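Example 9 (inverse folding). The structure is encoded as follows.
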């Protein structure tokens, strides 16, 4: 069984240019996604911090979420547009540990490295 992270994980949710917009993704509830992450942060005992960014320059992979686990490199996730992906993300943020195989499918290369 995996233990929750002892230190804080930082979650950055891209919102602004195309990620999180109804224009690009009209069939996804972007506000519910952000609320879900903020609720998790509020109930995490300080282990998860959520913030938004206007643009992370990875528009071709929208919706983009970047997770910076404690003591590890940031994990860039793209195409976060399904509740099943959010379920896996929420579970990872709650339990900690290595990136789940299911979320590895959503992993993208950060724009500065592409």
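The amino acid assigned to each position is listed next.
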């Amino acid at each position: 069984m995996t233990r929750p992270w002892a230190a804080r994980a930082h979650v950055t949710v891209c919102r602004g240019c195309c990620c999180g917009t109804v224009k690009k993704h009209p069939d996804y509830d972007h506000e519910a996604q952000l609320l879900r992450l903020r609720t998790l942060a509020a109930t995490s005992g300080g282990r998860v911090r959520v913030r938004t960014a206007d643009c992370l320059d990875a528009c071709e992979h929208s919706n983009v979420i970047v997770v910076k686990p404690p003591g590890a490199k940031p994990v860039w996730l793209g195409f976060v547009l399904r509740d099943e992906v959010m379920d896996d993300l929420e579970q990872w943020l709650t339990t900690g540990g290595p990136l789940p195989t299911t979320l590895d499918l959503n992993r993208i290369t950060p724009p500065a490295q592409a």
